[in-house]
Amino acid sequence: MVWEDFLLHEMLPAIEQRFRYGGTGRRGVFGKSSGGYGAITHALRHSDIWAAAACHSGDMGFELCYLPDMPAVLRALAGAENSIERWWQQLEAAKKHPEGSFKVINALAMAASYDPDPTHFLGIRLPVTFDTLSSNAGQIGCGKTPSLRSKPRRTISVG
After folding, report:
1. Which of 54, 95, 113, 141 has a Cα-to-Cα distance from 41 of 20 to 30 A?
2. Are 22 and 91 contained in the same domain?
């Protein structure tokens, strides 16, 4: 079960029963920082459940902040046959972490935290693919990403 299922199908009914409050048009969800991001995206996905939503200092714009890191992440993973699992095993076996590994760990951690996929190794599915650099985050031309300027023009599909 994922957090979203727990929130909707277990926690929300338990709170409404315990406090005898809530129901259609009387529910709100809010959060601060990463929780703000989660609250607003959850409210957008489930507008039939939430009548109000608030996002206080929410972590937003991940694709703008971290998309420039993706080519380096993908290059690191390419050294492990494009396998997150193999890359992770190599990292654990290394006596010294390779240069740039923090960038990869950071990208993998965010992918696992913000968009977990239990069908993948450690729940990690990157927002880009190895072969096309396509993404679920929007349309961003590679000309805007300095590390991709020397590559043939590709489009990252967002949305």
Report:
1. 141
2. no
